[in-house]
Design brief:
Amidase signature (AS) enzymes, alpha+beta
């Protein structure tokens, strides 16, 4: 079914932006049942090719829920912006009554009985949870494959990786199987798959989107949940639902910000962007990545933004090593209960075992020394922000690679000394807790997409979204480029 909208005359329901879809639903131009039917038909046609959505729920039950949303609208009741939206939750998050496997055989039959906080909030805004989006095992590694559901394929080349860990979410968005998507990001997990599937992925400021339930509420600060969308306006609208203080997350941000605007008041001529590139050669980059990202920055210069090369000003290797200590410490505690189960070690992928084993040798002094290094890094970024408003980096160091590989062992002939080293470019926003968006930057000669990271000052989420929205307007030939197979 097609409907008239301000976005595109007679656009299919599944082509609408989240903003346009919500308007159409609330204007009663389309029923929630019709929306659900359209998305289920799209999933039936596309998902067998890409394997992005898993644990899909019974169609009859989903349509019954959509009918309930229609009855609410008939009574003049709306639950919120996502009223009637079909939505699939990342398979690392808890949604009551739906399997939460985290891509691990150890969790294959785990069905939580409560919603996580982020799921509570999107359900309260009116969405209907239709299933989950696929992830790597325990969300580790920017390559979505696991022993439970298999591999998710890149939307632009089915033989390539989708990225990760929010790979299923990014592919479901790119192939129009979801209007918006949620994800989480510890080391680029919202940004990497967004860049590799030509959508927007936003890692919010640390504490902006509180995470609960969580085994640790005070020290584990590397991961955060956040939004993914095909349009920046939708990204902000979903972030507005996800964000907000919770007493269950004592480090969450109490100050309320409105992310629902169109950012029309933003003046790009006042924006100063520091281009970090490959950190003066420290980061190995496959050919063409810097060129594509610099071309995207030229579009921002066309808006009036000032773009200048900038040095990090601190040893990136020291930052990397400190980040590893935080990773190892967190994952050692995280995986210990699973490895205590009979046969647990045999059922966990080697990359997870490596992280666990590395964590066993850490001391409290090691973690504190890493925290001191992290503090020095944060203060250095503050010094950089005295000279610019944003920092920019590529979203990835390699183009989407062959889906049969576990991870890239070499870049430009240089061996990677850890399974996650090739994702090093995403660590900087994570380690500083800064807001960072991946915007579609462009494509290589093989038609593979790449993203550009734009990092903002502490808690400057709105300003990051505003710059991305301005860029979106002048990068339509990139943003609107759809996967040819779908």
């Amino acid at each position: 079914m097609a409907i008239n909208s301000s976005q595109a005359p007679d656009a299919p329901i599944t082509d609408l932006s989240g903003h346009a879809l919500s308007q159409a639903i609330h204007a009663r131009q389309v029923s929630c049942r019709e929306v659900m039917q359209a998305y289920l038909q799209r999933i039936e046609a596309v998902n067998p090719k890409v394997n992005a959505i898993v644990s899909l729920q019974d169609a009859g039950g989903l349509l019954a829920q959509a009918d309930g949303r229609d009855r609410q609208l008939a009574r003049g009741e709306s639950m919120g912006w996502m009223h009637g939206f079909p939505h699939a939750v990342k398979d690392t998050a808890s949604a009551a009554g739906i399997a939460m496997t985290m891509g691990s055989p150890l969790m294959r039959h785990h069905v939580p009985q409560v919603d996580g906080l982020a799921v509570q909030r999107i359900r309260a805004a009116g969405c209907i949870v239709i299933g989950k989006t696929n992830v790597p095992e325990f969300g580790l590694g920017s390559h979505t494959f696991n022993e439970v559901f298999g591999r998710t394929c890149n939307a632009y080349d089915l033989g390539k990786t989708a990225g990760g860990s929010s790979g299923g979410a990014a592919v479901a968005l790119a192939t129009r199987m979801l209007p918006v998507a949620d994800g989480s990001d510890m080391m680029g997990s919202l940004r990497n798959p967004a860049g590799w599937n030509n959508v927007f992925g936003f890692r919010p400021s640390q504490g902006r989107v509180p995470m609960w339930p969580a085994p640790d509420l005070f020290i584990s600060q590397l991961g955060t949940e956040g939004p993914m969308a095909r349009h920046v306006q939708d990204l902000g609208l979903l972030l507005g639902i996800q964000s907000g203080y919770s007493q269950n997350a004592p480090l969450s941000i109490a100050k309320y910000l409105d992310f629902t605007g169109t950012y029309e008041d933003f003046d790009p001529k006042k924006a100063r962007i520091g281009w970090l590139g490959d950190l003066a050669g420290h980061l190995q980059m496959e050919p063409g990545i810097l060129d594509v990202c610099e071309h995207a920055l030229q579009k921002m210069q066309g808006l009036g933004c000032q773009v200048e090369p900038m040095a990090l000003g601190i040893s990136p290797e020291a930052v990397w090593q400190a980040g590893l200590v935080w990773r190892f410490a967190g994952n050692q505690v995280r995986f210990a209960p699973f490895l205590a189960k009979p046969g647990g070690r045999a059922q966990m992928k080697p990359e997870a075992l490596w992280e666990f084993d590395q964590g066993l040798g850490l001391s409290a002094s090691d973690l504190m020394a890493a925290s001191v290094q992290r503090s020095a890094f944060y203060n250095q970024l503050l010094a950089l922000f005295e000279h610019c408003d944003y920092l920019a980096l590529p979203t990835a160091q390699v183009w989407p690679f062959d889906g049969g590989l576990r991870w890239p062992s070499h870049i430009n002939g240089v061996q990677m000394d850890a399974y996650c080293r090739w994702m090093e470019v995403t660590t900087y926003a994570t380690f500083a807790g800064l807001p960072c968006i991946s915007v579609p930057a462009g494509f290589n000669d093989q038609g593979l997409p790449m993203g550009l990271q734009i990092m903002g000052r502490p808690q400057a989420d709105t300003q990051v979204l505003a710059l991305a929205a301005a860029y979106e307007k002048v990068a339509q030939e990139v943003v609107q480029r759809r996967p040819k197979d779908f």
